[in-house]
């Protein structure tokens, strides 16, 4: 039997625990901290939502995970090139479509690895939707295990590395083998990863493809010209 004095001494503690909403076995866990989800402009979410493009479905891009600078947007841009010119700044990782009144449509891009860059001017002599792709002989030599099995080419489609559209760059009527194209690897935008080509999100290359006709000029800037056009 528990002595009356001991029982009496425990009652205040039990009453205190009840008042505090606690038990002798466990305490209520604190609420986890609130993690704020970044607010994304609904128009940007819509811009990068899934697209049904013919027989292919272009997956959506999570706009909340995009670097805001890579979102397609109109910017102030000063250049001596006429409207309709595509200016690629591979060092800033942007492609600009020159517009009227000192404006340009800016797209985030993935660019070539060091030593594989194209610099200079070219013309778009061919445009393609869901293009097929054949690795170059140099690509096969550099990475035979990766590109050798694809030497015969790959049909167009969502799994094709050229993505939804391609613009083919020519100089003096000859194919330079460089392209501006889409990608099925959206995480590569803003990085130096390609074998020489300029890659855009599929949503963005679809937009660019419809804006530029065959014969449009493309200018790829060198390091000395990088970052000078955008205000």
From TrEMBL:
User: What are the alphabetically sorted keywords of the record?
Assistant: Cell shape, Cell wall biogenesis/degradation, Glycosyltransferase, Hydrolase, Peptidoglycan synthesis, Signal, Transferase
Provide a Gene Ontology MF annotation, just one: glycosyltransferase activity
| Pathways involved | Cell wall biogenesis; peptidoglycan biosynthesis
Catalytic center at which residues?
181 (proton donor/acceptor), 197 (nucleophile)
- Stretch forming the signal peptide: 1-28
Q: Which GO terms describe its cellular component?
A: extracellular region
InterPro entries in alphabetical order:
LD-transpeptidase, LD_TPept_cat_dom, Transpep_catalytic_dom
User: PROSITE patterns of this UniProt entry?
Assistant: LD_TPASE, PROKAR_LIPOPROTEIN
Q: Mind listing the GO biological process terms from this record?
A: cell wall organization; peptidoglycan-protein cross-linking; regulation of cell shape
Q: Where is the L,D-TPase catalytic domain?
A: 84-221
What is the protein's species of origin?
Answer: Pseudorhizobium pelagicum
What Pfam families has UniProt attached to this entry? Answer: YkuD (PF03734)
> This chain belongs to which protein, by name?
L,D-TPase catalytic domain-containing protein
What family is this protein classified in? Belongs to the YkuD family.
């Amino acid at each position: 039997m528990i002595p009356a004095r001991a029982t009496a001494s425990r009652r205040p503690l039990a009453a205190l625990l009840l008042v505090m909403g606690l038990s002798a076995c466990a305490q209520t866990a604190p609420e986890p901290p609130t993690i704020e989800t970044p607010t994304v402009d609904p128009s940007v979410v819509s811009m990068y939502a899934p697209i049904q493009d013919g027989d292919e479905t272009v997956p959506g891009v999570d706009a909340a995970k995009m670097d805001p600078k890579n979102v397609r947007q109109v910017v102030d841009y000063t250049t001596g090139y006429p409207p309709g010119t595509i200016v690629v700044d591979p060092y800033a990782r942007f492609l600009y479509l020159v517009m009227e009144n000192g404006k340009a449509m800016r797209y985030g891009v993935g660019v070539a690895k060091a030593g594989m860059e194209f610099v200079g001017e070219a013309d778009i002599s061919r445009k393609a939707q869901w293009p097929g792709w054949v690795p170059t002989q140099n690509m096969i030599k550099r990475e035979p295990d990766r590109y050798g099995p694809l030497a015969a080419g790959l049909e167009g489609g969502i799994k094709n590395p050229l993505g939804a559209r391609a613009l083919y760059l020519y100089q003096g009527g000859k194919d330079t083998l460089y392209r501006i194209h889409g990608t099925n690897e959206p995480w590569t935008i803003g990085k130096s990863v390609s074998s020489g080509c300029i890659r855009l999100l599929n949503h963005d290359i679809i937009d660019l493809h419809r804006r530029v006709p065959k014969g449009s000029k493309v200018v790829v800037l060198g390091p000395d010209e990088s970052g000078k056009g955008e205000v």
